[in-house]
Design brief:
193 residues, mainly alpha, 5% strand
Length: 193
């Protein structure tokens, strides 16, 4: 049986205007609420493992999990914008946690990898994340967990589609779509081929 959240019980929709948006029944808003609770810097066990901010932590985790990897691929995989990834990469390089290496196939492309210091932080953080994940997943059966991941994939795909279509519309109107939305178009074409 699913219980109503404490927030749903504590807050009543306003009567100050007609048709207020019920945020407790608004899927994107609810996903954002849970995402806020799951932010790496909200978990003190993870936060105490390094002095990295959440942006840098997410980029370090992507590098550790998928290295060697390009910054553009980190942006797409993590759904961070390229500017945010670029800032995090600069910070991680200055902290001597990652290295930039030339790509074997494309000489003008740089791949990112963790060095020993970065790998040590990565291992500590992922162990703490894995422990937290197991605790969170304990409220779901295996069937529910599989279904949940399938639903998340559908929502992610639809969100990507909507943003890519918006970017295409902007471009068709002669406007310049932001770089992150151009990347969505590129990746959407790549994944559909």
């Amino acid at each position: 049986m699913i219980k109503s959240s404490a927030r749903r019980l504590a807050f009543q929709l306003t009567t100050e205007h007609k048709e207020p948006l019920d945020l407790t029944n608004h899927l994107p808003f609810q996903i954002a609420v849970v995402s806020n609770l799951l932010a790496l810097n909200r978990d003190w066990k993870i936060r105490n493992l390094s002095d990295l901010d959440p942006r840098e932590m997410r980029v370090l985790l992507n590098i550790g999990s998928y290295m060697p990897i390009k910054s553009a691929d980190i942006a797409y995989q993590s759904r961070l914008d390229s500017y945010t990834v670029s800032r995090a990469v600069k910070k991680l390089l200055s902290l001597d946690l990652i290295e930039s290496q030339p790509d074997q196939h494309k000489k003008n492309v740089k791949n990112l990898v963790l060095n020993e210091r970065g790998l040590t932080i990565y291992k500590h953080v992922t162990a703490a994340m894995d422990e937290r994940s197991k605790q969170l997943e304990s409220v779901l059966t295996e069937e529910e967990k599989a279904s949940f991941y399938q639903m998340l994939a559908k929502i992610e795909d639809k969100a990507e589609q909507l943003l890519a279509e918006q970017a295409k519309e902007l471009i068709a109107q002669g406007e310049d779509a932001p770089a992150d939305q151009k990347e969505l178009i590129r990746w959407r074409k790549k994944s559909k081929s």
